[in-house]
Automatic annotation (TrEMBL):
The keyword Lipoprotein applies. It comes from Sphingobacterium micropteri. Pfam families: SusD-like_2 (PF12771). Gene3D superfamilies: 1.25.40.390. This is SusD/RagB family nutrient-binding outer membrane lipoprotein. The keyword Zinc does not apply. It comes from the Bacteria. Keywords: Lipoprotein.
Length: 533
């Protein structure tokens, strides 16, 4: 027997989604149709899907989920060397789970789906674009749940907004879900290839501004990401479908910046812009758990030894203050990962010390213009580089790799230069960037294995903590970069980082019958199916 309070809470919450609550948010005022206030509005549902806070660079998502888990498991931020450093925070993963299901993206999508299915057949085609766009985002976010947890409820999830009945969903097989997403993304791309946008769609689309070609490219790019994710598990399928896409760019446009190094980030990348009503930043998300301290390997090894130009927009040298006089450090330096929590806090907490760098404030943590990052051209060119190195020719791989690195530099300088923070850094010239790519220790040379290591390391660096979920998935898939040994925790059962997150306790309790089917593999050392490293 499920907890009655939970069922009542779920029912009230999901029904409020289906009927749209009376609270007048900016989005409600803009998208509710005054001529159809008695029925759910598909246009507004789509906007609500796109407006999910997990698609944005907002405090709660980073403070409680990314920085507490993914960023630690990939060393993309500093984390305190203590006994609980790898322990999953159940309350926070409960929140993440809820924000997808109830009344999150899945709940809203099911209500949207129900409304669409109830339309007369002659009216449905007018709303196909809304359904396909919402579906692309649903598959994007659901694939992240699979990457984090493995099997998840999907096919039977969201029963209340779709049927007015509470029926807890089974856990679908993760491999079958990936296949479903890959095929669904192909269908979505096909639809948008011939779709001509309408004023209604433009109005509802707060992600891609009604750009049908961008939705097509986004769907293809997500498909490319998921195919590469399964490429060690099912290489034949991944190779066949990926190379078909790459060899036919006209049929399969992707988010690659037209292979230009200095591309227009705001026009090409899939970025969820902040709402006009949002004036906060990630300052507290990082500062509350000292994630603004510079991480060892990323700064000391990946960036500094290469004299990487991204160092100036990813980190700040910091410095000491003595007698109210601030003296900046002469160089970038991060604390060794083995530093104890007490020593790290003394170093950063003592104004007369502070010899180590911090995360750059303008780019990342004091920037209320920071968008949610869903897909970038650099990621796609790193995928192309890996595909060509494994299944094509190394010359094409080199071109894609160098383009990806240059685009990553362009991307981070874009974030910095468009920041709400007053301090900006001038982007290096194209000549300086070209020279860095071909002469530093990241230049594309060596054996095939060494080149794949270069690709994996630079892709990890590009994702960083801002795309922590992607960084963790790729680190598990490829094993790159070759990070220094993680400190060992003394907490029994949590000595090392996990290879997956365990299911949140609310799901275990309230969906207990279906949970039995996955209980045996609900451990932190059970790998996701694509992780065959």
């Amino acid at each position: 027997m499920k907890k009655l309070s939970y069922i009542i809470y779920t029912a009230i919450t999901l029904l409020s989604v289906g009927l749209f609550q009376s609270c007048k948010t900016e989005l409600d005022n803009k998208y509710l149709d005054p001529e159809q206030t008695d029925i759910p509005n598909i246009r507004a549902f789509m906007t609500q899907v796109l407006n999910n806070s997990r698609l944005r660079s907002e405090y709660w998502h980073y403070r409680t989920f990314i920085l507490m888990h993914h960023a630690r498991y990939t060393q993309t931020t500093y984390f305190a060397n203590n006994n609980t450093m790898y322990q999953q925070q159940d309350a926070y993963t409960n929140d993440y789970w809820r924000d997808f299901y109830s009344p999150g993206i899945m709940g809203v999508y099911r209500a949207m789906e129900r409304t669409y299915n109830a339309l007369p057949d002659g009216e449905k085609s007018s709303y196909d674009a809304f359904m396909f766009a919402a579906r692309i985002v649903l598959y994007d976010q659901a694939s992240k749940l699979v990457d984090n947890f493995g099997d998840i409820p999907f096919s039977e999830a969201g029963s209340l907004p779709s049927s007015d009945q509470i029926s807890l969903g089974k856990f679908d097989d993760q491999k079958e879900l990936y296949n479903y997403f890959i095929e669904g993304l192909k269908d979505a791309a096909t639809f948008f290839k011939s779709y001509t946008s309408t004023p209604d769609f433009n109005r509802a689309d707060i992600l891609n501004d009604g750009n049908a070609r961008k939705w097509e490219s986004y769907a293809n790019s997500l498909r490319l990401r998921l195919l590469m994710r399964i490429s060690q598990f099912d290489e034949n399928r991944a190779r066949t479908e990926i190379m078909e896409m790459l060899n036919s760019p006209t049929n399969y446009p992707i988010i690659d910046g037209n292979n230009q190094s200095s591309y227009a980030v705001n026009n090409v990348d899939v970025l969820n812009k902040r709402l006009n009503t949002y004036t906060s930043s990630l300052i507290d998300a990082l500062r509350e758990i000292n994630s603004h301290y510079a991480p060892d390997y990323m700064l000391n090894t990946a960036l500094k030894t290469a004299n990487d130009p991204r160092i100036h927009v990813l980190f700040d040298k910091y410095g000491k203050t003595v007698s109210d006089v601030f003296t900046p450090n002469t160089d970038y330096q991060a604390l060794p990962i083995t530093t104890t929590e007490a020593n790290a806090n003394t170093e950063y907490g003592t104004a007369s010390l502070r010899r180590y760098a911090v995360v750059d404030s303008a780019t990342g943590w004091i920037n209320n213009e920071l968008p949610g990052i869903l897909m970038t051209a650099s990621e796609i060119n790193f995928i192309k580089a890996e595909a060509h190195e494994r299944w094509g020719n190394t010359s094409d791989a080199k071109t894609a790799y160098e383009t990806a690195v240059k685009q990553s530099i362009n991307f981070y300088y874009y974030l910095n230069n468009n920041s709400s923070h007053a301090t900006k850094v001038d982007k290096p010239s194209d000549g300086e960037i070209d020279n860095f790519v071909i002469t530093s220790n990241i230049k594309y040379e060596g054996s095939a294995v060494q080149k794949l290591q270069l690709i994996g390391t630079q892709k990890w660096l590009h994702f960083g903590w801002l795309q922590g979920e992607q960084a963790w998935a790729e680190y598990r898939r490829t094993g790159y970069p070759l990070l220094p040994a993680f400190p060992i925790s003394n907490l029994n059962g949590f000595q090392n980082p996990p290879v997956r997150l365990v299911y949140p306790s609310n799901e275990v309790t309230n969906n207990s019958e279906n949970y039995k089917a996955v209980q045996a593999k609900d451990t932190r050392d059970t790998k996701i199916f694509w992780d065959v490293n």
